[in-house]
Amino acid sequence: MKYLFILNDPPYGTERSYNGIRHARELLKDKDVGNEVHVFLIGDAAACAKSGQKVPQGYYNVESMLQMLIHHGAGIGVCGTCIDARGIAETDLVTGARRGSMALLAEWTMWADKLIVY
Question: What is the pTM of this model?
Fold first, then answer.
């Protein structure tokens, strides 16, 4: 199946984006099933894709979690308007994440069998 996750919350302060990424990771674990996953980060979730995150020892790191999803074939799109509003340059994004738009989100929505919003 093809899954699209839309994440809205910041990387830290709430656990919604964290849990959405964990959910996406679980769907990619069994390669024999053949699930495909795209994650679109919008609003405050755009900060999830900022590279160079430093968190306290023992605390989860959303950047590392996104890198793991990318390594397993997930597509990561980040709302361009949202990163611009937050002063995040496209070059600051995690390697493998791409600047997106509402057009990309619409394309991915049509692609997906299931849409999951966190």
Answer: 0.95
